[in-house]
User: Fold these one by one.
Assistant:
Number 1:
Amino acid sequence: MLRQIIAMGGGGFSMEPENPLLDLYILGQSEKQTPKVCFVPTASGDADNYITRFYTAFERHECTPSHLSLFSPPTRDLESYVMDKDIIYVGGGNTKNLLALWKEWGLDIILRKAWQQGKIMAGVSAGSICWFEEGVTDSFGSGLEPLKTLGFLKGSNCPHYDGEKERRPAYQSFVGSARIKAGYAADDGAALNFIDEQLVKAVSSRQEAKAYRVWMEEQKVKEEAVKTIYLG
């Protein structure tokens, strides 16, 4: 059973409503003709507008969309609800709040089980950071800080690498000072595709968008662009 995660630095329906390339890529990783895709908008506080935009986007595609709200749960049996889906798509927002709520509801444990049983995990921004051991977040309200996350994937993650000017220097500083582990960054419009915890491909919805590996070597921070395939 393949364990697959697709971590987007930015993009998808919420940032590129007229550019469905990343969303179609995620759907295409499922073996199902009409995959069941479940949006998890916890990081946004289950914002109604965000949920509406998800349905507006995904009802155009060959899939069966649904969403999982922790503020208005669809059922008491969250595990059965999640296990019925093929793809879990986690939205952006406040990563720290997302982690707290998931742990309170036991959703972190359910999602790990789903991932181990071949359900595709995907997400953007907070929905990218959450899968790694650590991430660079603005969840605390002022500036960027490292944050311990779920650890499905080894290392750290930084989204919006080109989209927010403070992201790249902050991530490199954190890696250089050992405040955060080495890991991967992704521009807005770029996504990292991991299978069985190994990066197998980087893809993008914009020609210029890239993914990167960032690490320390000989007391210097190194950054290397990962070959990124434009989906257009």
Number 2:
Amino acid sequence: MGDPNILIWGAGRIGRGFLADLFQTSGYHITFVDASEELIAQLRRAGRYTVVRAEGVEKRDDLVIYGYEAFSTAQTEEVAQALAGADLMALAVFPRDFATVAAQMIPGLQRRCTLRPSAPLDIILCTNLAHAALEFSAALHAVLPEDLRAYVEQQVGIVESLVIRMVVEPPAEERRRDPLLVWTNGYAELPVDQHAFKGTIPSVRGLRLVDDMRAEEMRKLYSYNTFHAALAYWGALYGYEHIVDCLADAQVRKEALGALDESSRALQAECHFSADEMARWNEGVVYQTNNPTLGDRVSRQAADPMRKLRREDRLIGPILLARKHAIPTPHLVRATAVAFLYRNACDPSAVAIQERIVQCGIEVAVREICQLGPEEEDVVTAVVAAYAEIKNMRLGANATESVNVP
């Protein structure tokens, strides 16, 4: 019997830079599928590319990915055959593409049902979205022919995962040397929902089996993403370009760590993580973030503030969770306020927020963008007060300095 094979649908940074790394290292043959014919052509011409695992200034490990196959979604026959023969599938696309991918999978599922009706197919979803399994399952069932419904219900597992590995833009000289090179922080674990598999759980180094995926999703979003958002929005206010520079600033670091601590206490109360467990986890959050070799930019972590200010996302989400457990959140409230102060003319979401503030005022903007109801007026009031205080403080203290406030 040959090596097991995995079909990685989505050959972008996560597909190439994390999933291919994880599964090739465990002996899997890789097949990429992607909508970009140009990217697929590059992969086929090169025959190999490099994944950089840059864990720190003195710790870099390069892995060459090779021996793979690569098909564009326009190659319908080849994609159907690859899907029919795969032992496992991973989906690394944006949630907005779920419906398109689901429709493109149908010929392969039909062929698999005919040729291998008793062979389970588990699909690991690798996308930054809570409850991704519900959304992808809905998209798939919306396009399933009647004769495939029973087969998919019995044999296809939709497995949620948490992608924590950071993938950033490589240094320019590295990118010129290898346009396919992927620059990562080398984070080695992929937590997966162990209860969602229909087949045998694959033996893959780095695959961490999770019992309560909802709790794990919440912890990742309300720790890593909360910490990064707080650093980015405070850092932008102080004029920093890189995340490590934000961490190096004592005041910005204090605010971000304060937000992380408040969120952590809420997670302990809600999900019953122990204090020691959360302390170890948070040490990892800070360690993984404080990596100058990544060159991670404030603009990347601050991007799309409209989404990041939504009710269940990384700022308002932990505020409401802490509120549920009567935990004060002054740092989280201030981080939310500086997100409303974030300005970036190249970010349509940031521009839209500033336009909304001008049109209707900060109070209405907070209420609408954060999706807060009448029963949460205390949160609105707190964010508005912090917004006014920080804006006035920065304008007053830096009257001659160019700062990032509207």
Number 3:
Amino acid sequence: MHIQAKSIEEAVRAHSTEGEFRAGGTDVQERIRAGNLSLPIIDIQSIAVLDEIEFHESGTTIGALTTLESIGNHDQLQRDYPAFTLPTRTLATPQIRNFATLGGSLCQRTRCWYYRHPELGCPKKGNSDTCLARDGNHQRGVCFDFGPCVAPHPSSVGCALLTYDAQVEVTGRGKISIGDLYGDGSDPTREHTLEKGQMITHVHLPKAIENEKAAYYRMMSRKWAEWPAVEVVTRLMLDGNVISDAKLSLGAVANIPFRLTEVEELLIGNPANDDTFQSAAQLSVARANPLPQTGHKLKMVVACVLHTLQQAVATT
């Protein structure tokens, strides 16, 4: 069953009891094949004004239907919010970036192979209380074990927006932080905190900071050409050679993207040099508690954090 929504109100009303939103639709066909998509499909792609980018005195507002390609190639967004645009220019493939939307990227479903298997149960599919990955093959799983689900959250965009303390505008809830969108990872049945009848309409970024330094780096298996094994988004603000502010977030290593607040605290007030960066990189795995098959990711986290810090200060 398919519903073509012409307005936000119509979409929310159709979604209030069952079904799923379709924006870019890059994952819909795959999930139909896997038998884990809830009908009806509520197509929101034609809703007006949700694909606009607006700059104003207090910050920037981006509609949830704006494509990742439009964001990544937008000159002013690249200048004002480089840590946000860098992932949108490199994730997935050019074909997907041309269709994938900002809101859809924030709310995409897990890539766990147990969830994706049409004959296996999973709490996120609602047909099991047991996470098969925890006791099964989880070599691509989390190394920061925050909750029952051990599948990494797939949103690189959510990881990037955390470094800006961005907010999302949600029908029925108003503006909430990116952190509140994802919660603490304790609910194994979902990737975000949105309820039925709730939809992201816009993302709000704060006022841009001049001359911020930014970097993004991911490690991934080219054999699979899929989601990253580890990804890091880094923002640095410098006062001469001293780090006046720092924002770092990790993705692909926990069931939610999250900020490395302890690393940020270490960096602020210290010189932007290799000694500081080496210490920060080692601290980045302080909270890690890898699964039996994911200990290899810790060295990757350290290497990615170090690389982004070095890369950020090298940008002009």
Number 4:
Amino acid sequence: MTYNFDQIIDRSSSNSVKYDIRQAYFGNKNVIPLWVADMDFATPECIRKAILKRANHEIYGYSIKPDSYFTSIQNWLKTQHNWSIPKTSIDFSPGVVPGLVFSILALTNPGDKIIVQTPVYFPFFISIEGNNREMLVNPLKEKNGYYEMDFEDLKSKIDSRTKMILLSSPHNPVGRVWKKEELEELIEICVKNDIIIASDEIHADLVFKPHKHIPLASLSEKAKQQTITFMAPSKTFNMAGLSSSFVIIENEEYHKKYRALVESYHLTNGNLFGTVGTEAAYSHGAKWLSQMLSYTEKNIDFVSDYFAKHIPQIFFYKPEGTYLLWINFKALKMTDAQLKEFLVHRAEIGLNQGIVFGENGTGYMRMNVACPRSLLEKALNQLKAAIDRLDLQLS
């Protein structure tokens, strides 16, 4: 079956965060929204059919997760990532960020330090500081748009109060897919200093060849015992509204504490349709994913070629994973506030401000390209026209 990713789907008035709060968030209801990290592609038919089938039952009562749910996760991880895990290591989380918060509350204490590697997904910050922990910033090293972990800086900042690191893998927003050697060095540092690794791997399936996502916990027994892994089908299959995340914890002590915390908040049941959707996605979604990745990579190349031809002062390093572009706008010589104003009200496109991902995100914007190419082309044409007008004003 060939899927149509060029289809324009009207998402307005569907209670979509991406579309229906444009006026409130940007102050301009007409911006082309390329910000929130969900796709403008139809959720795979196998998921929609499974949900509709279950929805036809007359009762939506309390539900359990069947063995087939766990088996679908195990099979997917083995097939896609060569990672074999026991059923007992899988637990529920209403979302990756709530799961990170649960791990912080369960496994660290107020006043403990937790590491982030900026620029990074900004909910990490409130997850730490909003729960009376101290954020320890270990900025990534950047050279010509390519980012690497700064292990020397990390080692120099760790002290006895440093208890956890929140890892983004693949990395949001810079698009790195961490290499085996990088992950192994991180593991060695964390094992030596007894630092728990809470690994956000929600973009694990969104990786472009020849790159390959490596689940951190799959690398060794040490890694398995030091790591809590958070995953979900939500980014992969465009089902973020279904509360379908899960956590993999093979360290029995960590798992016991995590589970006790989640149970104390009575959050273990999850969403009936999230369970159904997850099983359908992981059982039948592989072909859709392959075609979606091909289409999205062509979108990335389209933006890259467009910038090179029409707006060469703006550029990005092609992401190894995710459908997010980390775009350098510094040549426009604007402050972050001016850049946002320019993009929203002159170009009428809605992007995520780089500065919210950390201080080293200044001058950058994050663009979501998981959308029909015609929408992307329209946005780029509006951006070019706005910059052309700006150049005329300055000349």
